[in-house]
Amino acid sequence: MAADAAEEIRGTAHGTAPVPLSVLDLVTVGAGRTATDALRTSVDIARLAESRGFHRYWVAEHHSMPGVASSSPAVILAHLAAHTERIRLGSGGVMLPNHAPLVIAEQFGTLEAMAPGRIDLGLGRAPGTDGATAAALRRSDRLNEGADDFPQQLAELTRFLDDDFPDGHPYRRIHAVPGPVQATSPGGVQSPHRPPIWLLGSSGFSARLAGMLGLPFAFAHHFSAQNTVPALDLYRETFRPSEVLDAPYALIGVSALATDDEKEARRQVLAAALNMVRLRTGRPGLVPTPEEAEAYDFSPMEREFVDSWNANVVHGTPDEVRTGLDDLQKRTGADELMITANAHGGDVRLRSYELIADAYGLPTPA
C-alpha cells in the first residue's frame, strides 16, 4: 500500500459541515423512467458532488431489483470516471462472495488505471439480493459458506492487489493486470496508487474485522440504524494500527432528502418507503411516484414499517436536514457522512444534494 494511503482515505470537511460529506448512489429507477434515465442522473449528481466539494461518490451492488440499476458497480464507475476529474469514486460496495477475488482485483486495477488515485474498493459480505439470486450469481446454493469464507477471500484479494503471494503458493505466478507486476516487467512503470480497501457492514462482523486489520469501515446506518453505535464502538475498540491507518476512520451511510418545503419531503420519502415495503414483502418494483404512495392503502403492519423506516430518514427543509445530519454525526462520532437520497425522480435527488451543499456553505463552482 502506498505511503499516502491514509490521505486517500481521510477527507476534508468543507463549509460548515462537521465532517466530510460524500454520496452513496443506488441508481434508483422510478416508475415511468428507464435505467438510462437513472444513469444519466448519476452522472449529473457525480458532477454536482465534485463541483461542490463532496469527498467521494460510491455505487452499491444490488441484483434482481427493478428499481435499482446498480448491478455492475465497476461498469458504472468507469462511466463516472469519464465524466469527472477529481472526486473519489468507489464501490459501496462490491459483494465479495459473489465474485472471484482475481476478477475484482482486475476490475479495480483497471479502474485505478483509468482514474489514478481516485478509486476506493468497498467490500461487503452480504449477497446484495435474495437467496435464489445469490445462488444464481455464485453457481452454488451454499450461501453461508461464502459469507463464512469472507476473511479468506479478503486476504486473497489483497494479495492479488499487492501482487505478493509467497513463494510456493499456487497463485504465486498469477497476476492481476493492471497491477504491480507491470512495474517489475522489463521497462515497466507502475502507478504508486492502489485502491484502498474499505470493509462495509450492517452488524458487528465486518466492524470487528476492519478494526483488527486496521482498515477503514463503512456502516450501513441507512438500513440498520439500531446497530450503528454498537458497531462503531466495536470497530474502535478492536482497531489495530496498520500500514493503512494509524487510527480508526469510519463513515456511515445516511438516508437524507432535502426539498424546498417540508411537505414535499414527506411526500417523497413516503414513496421511497412504499418501495421498501414492496421489497421487504417480496414484491420489488420501480420506485413509485409520490401520488401513487399517497393513494396507497397501507395495512397497519405496513404503516408501522413505514413510520419506523422514515424515522431514520433525515428529511425536510435544508435547515432541518442540516440539523439532523449534525445531530447524527455528534451521536455516532462518524468521521464522514455518506448521503443517499432516495426519491422517485432524478431531479428531486439532484436538487437534494444541491440544497444540502448550500445549507453547509460548500464551495460553489467558479
Query: Based on DSSP secondary structure assignment, what is the total number of beta strands?
Result: 9
- Elements, N to C (H/E): HEHEHEHEHHHHEHEHEHHHEHEH
Cα Rg = 20 Å
Q: What is the arithmetic mean of pLDDT?
A: 93
* Widest sheet: strand ordering: 1-2-3-4-5-6-7-9
Counting helices, strands and paired strands, the structural category is alpha/beta
Strand content: 5-15%
* Termini gap: 35 Å
Helix content: 40-55%
Describe, in short, the structure shown.
The protein has 366 residues and is α/β, with parallel strands linked by helices. The chain has helices at residues 5-9, 35-52, 73-81, 101-114, 131-138, 143-148, 150-162, 181-184, 204-213, 228-238, 262-280, 290-295, 300-310, 318-332, 346-359, and strands at residues 21-25, 56-59, 88-95, 119-124, 197-201, 217-219, 250-258, 314-316, 336-340.
Describe this structure in words.
The chain has 366 residues and is of the alpha/beta class. The protein has 15 helices and nine strands. It has an eight-stranded parallel beta barrel, surrounded by eight helices. The mean pLDDT is 93.
Fold blueprint:
Elements: H1 5-9, E1 21-25, H2 35-52, E2 56-59, H3 73-81, E3 88-95, H4 101-114, E4 119-124, H5 131-138, H6 143-148, H7 150-162, H8 181-184, E5 197-201, H9 204-213, E6 217-219, H10 228-238, E7 250-258, H11 262-280, H12 290-295, H13 300-310, E8 314-316, H14 318-332, E9 336-340, H15 346-359
Parallel strand pairs: 1-2, 1-9, 2-3, 3-4, 4-5, 5-6, 6-7, 7-8, 7-9
Helix pairs in contact: 2-15, 3-4, 4-7, 9-10, 11-13, 14-15
